[in-house]
Amino acid sequence: MSENKEINENVTETPAENKEPVKKNRLENMSPVKVGRILLLVLCVLFLIGIWFHNNPVNGPVNTKDDETDSESVDGEATPEPTPLPNELIDPNSVTVLVNKNHALPADYIPASLVTPYVLSTSDVIQVNALAADQLKAMSTKASEEGINLYLTAGYISYETQDDYFNDRAGMVGEAEANKVIAKAGFSEHQTGLAFDFSDEPSGTATTVAFADTPAGQWLIAHAWEYGFIMRYPDGKEAVTGYSYQPWHYRYVGADVAKAMHEIAPDLTMEEYYSVN
Ligand code: ZN
Questions:
Q1: Which of 166, 206, 209, 252 could pair with 248 in a Cys bridge, judged by C-beta atoms 3.0 to 4.6 Å apart?
Q2: Ligand 1 center from residue 197 Cα (angstroms)
Q3: 123 falls in which pLDDT band (50, 70, 90)?
Q4: What is the distance in A from the centroid of ligand 1 to the CA of 189?
């Protein structure tokens, strides 16, 4: 055993003893010129490493991470896209153009043809979209024949006038409350000339839910759809339309659509009928 151990020690020591002299010999054999060249090469490498660190600072990757974090938070706050709409709901000249809190009209949109409706009204300056004028007249005439006075209190309202209305209301009750009953400019159906407000009396006290219980309000609920009009903001549909109950506000959508909607449900909204938001 002791002999084996001595042999092992010799084996391990021998290579180290052999290498040391070789290294010493190489360095000693080098000429000063060669040593100078090696030193110059080492300096050049150190210089290039220095340049690399200058152009790639240690905090470089940290900045990149910050940028990614910012873009992620922006994505997280993005609002969902409104439903893509078919052309009959986008074209401002279509009787079924959708105007709600998600879909506005251009500020400069004016109906191609505005006319005086020649129906009972609270003002003789009210104008309406010509596309709805004949049916409005027919409905008003039929109501009169049945002893019902339908006073038109509003038809077409320009972008600028709507802007004044909204700001006046917001100044009184605050923007959040105003937003429940009155549309911001561009978001009002009245800018299409296809939306109408009614009252049962010439003084035009139309904008209360009590209108629904008047003979005029009841007559509209029963018959407006026959002429192509729908109650646009029905009771209980606030979450769908974004507006509180407005039994005085009707929208012309054409006789075919109004009939189809009425057959599904008397209080169906445009958003529900077209499955849009
Ligand atoms: Zn209205």
A1: 206
A2: 5
A3: confident
A4: 7
Query: How far apart, in whole angstroms, are the C-alpha atoms of residue 70 and residue 259?
Result: 51
Poorest-pLDDT segment among 57-61, 111-115, 128-132, 218-222: 57-61
Q: What distance in Å separates the CA atoms of residue 127 and residue 146, rounded to the nearest whole number?
A: 25
CA of 70 to the centre of ligand 1 (A): 43
Q: How many C-beta neighbours within 10 Å does residue 251 have?
A: 24
Residue 112 and residue 108: Cα distance in Å, rounded?
12
Under DSSP, the state recorded for 233 is S
Contacts of residue 219, Cβ cutoff 8 Å, sequence gap at least 6: 143, 146, 148, 150
Across all residues in the chain, what is the average pLDDT?
80
- pLDDT digit string (tens) for 49-88? 444 444 443 443 333 333 333 333 334 445 556 667 899 9
Both tokens assigned to 211: 């209108």
**Assigned token pair, 59:** 């905090």
CA terminus-to-terminus distance, the chain: 93
Contact (CB, 8 A) for 206 and 248: yes
Per residue in 176-194, pLDDT tens? 999 887 899 999 999 999 9
Ligand 1 centroid–CA 126 distance in Å is 13
Pairing outcome for strands 114-115 and 128-129? antiparallel
Q: How far is the CA of 219 from the centre of ligand 1 (A)?
A: 18
